[in-house]
Amino acid sequence: ERNMFGVARVVLLLVLVGGVIAAGPLVWAFAAGFARDPALYADATYLLRVLFPFIYFMGLIGVGMGLLHVRGRFVVPAVGPMLLNIGLIAGAGVAWWRMQQPGQDASANPLAIGVLAGVAAWWLWMRVAATRQQIDVRSSIWPLQPEVRHVGRLLLPALAGLSVYQLQVIVGTQFASFLPEGGFTCLWYADRLVQFPMAMVGTAVATVALPVLSNARVKGGDTDEALSDVLQFSTFVVVPAAIGLYIVREPLIDLVFGWGHFDDRAVARTAAATGALAVSLVPGALNRVLTANLYSEERMAGPIVAGAAALIVQALCSWQWLEQDVEGLARAIAVASVAQLLVLTVLARRSGQRIAMPLRGVAATIAAAVCMVGALQGVDRAVASWTAGPRLAILVATGIAAYAVIAVALRHPEAQRLIQRFSSRR
């Protein structure tokens, strides 16, 4: 443990120093379109330098999360991002307050400071949780333990897979930087809205799936059944999330962002991008589970191949649909996510794994989803003239109730499992 933290600290410090020095070229590499406006380019470079310590803290948090996951502790890693969001919201509040003061211009400095404060608080909380689990968070580099060398051998191909993902981010950012004014921001806001249910469902399920699948393989259990169960649960919860986000996107965006300079056109553009990205929720969540499955087998090349396929598809579709504004780029991301899912499924099957969800569960999910859509559309027509807040509240309540009632009535396997778990705790 001390070796892991020691090596991580050295590498992350080198990345931090290099990033601060090369901030200007990095901005150009990620968003060349910003160079058309020297003031915007200078601001982006400055903020990148300010925010680079974020990578240092997140790297250490990643090590701590992995060690906690091995011990079956998921609460702190899962809830920790809340501190990051609190810092961001607090920074946004300070920025808004400063803008109301006479003679004060808009500045992103409070937002940057809020993000850094949030991630630092998350790291401190992680340290406390790790210490309680008798995890040594101190640093030592030498002598290098054999286990650390083994992790390093696995980490290099995993980093290659993550690099492919970062290339996808670069491709999306580059194309977005050439959108008409405000397009980059609208696409980013849409992505934030989609990432919330993705983190709640896709990332959370995949985080738990990795140690579960790894332990099943170590103990010689039925990994096919375990994988199918995880995929079925992920589908059960992400399908209504995707449908709900697609239907309620306009009142949601109007309520959350429709203030100040975020006018009706910005709301419409963000809603269009959110609708396209909502389609990617289902394949995106399944991709995370299948990627965790490959990692549990120590087949590190699989995610690289799938990510490369998604990168190519995204680049081609983004180039083709750039004229369709933010919706075109969002649709390209969704199509790339589907391509990645197909490749991951093929790789899993080629390794001899049987991916088969029970027909009863699939049929119940589809039926509940169809009823949910019908209920939401009917209620939405009835409350279309309401203000954003009440309209959103009634739509969310209707969607959850309709899906849950139908799933229980059809005796969906996952619904029955949830009922049994809640009943056993009483």
How would you characterize the overall build of this protein?
By secondary structure, the chain is mainly alpha-helical. The chain has helices spanning 2-21, 23-30, 38-51, 53-70, 75-79, 81-99, 109-132, 146-176, 183-218, 223-256, 264-278, 281-296, 301-321, 325-350, 359-382, 388-409, 413-424. The longest helix has 36 residues, at 183-218. The protein is globular, with a radius of gyration of 23 Å.
Mean of pLDDT: 81
By oligomeric state, this entry counts as: single chain
Strand share of the residues?
under 5%
Helix percent band: over 70%
Our Rg estimate from Cα atoms comes to 23 Å
- Count of alpha/pi helices: 17
Q: Could you list the spans in which at least 5 consecutive residues all have pLDDT below 50?
A: none
Structural class: mainly alpha
Large-scale geometry: globular
Separation of termini?
A: 38 Å
* Elements, N to C (H/E): HHHHHHHHHHHHHHHHH
Beta strands, count: 0
Major sheet: size, sense and barrel closure?
Answer: none
Question: Quick recap of the structure?
Answer:
With 426 residues, the protein is mainly α. It has helices spanning 2-21, 23-30, 38-51, 53-70, 75-79, 81-99, 109-132, 146-176, 183-218, 223-256, 264-278, 281-296, 301-321, 325-350, 359-382, 388-409, 413-424. The radius of gyration is 23 Å and the shape is globular.
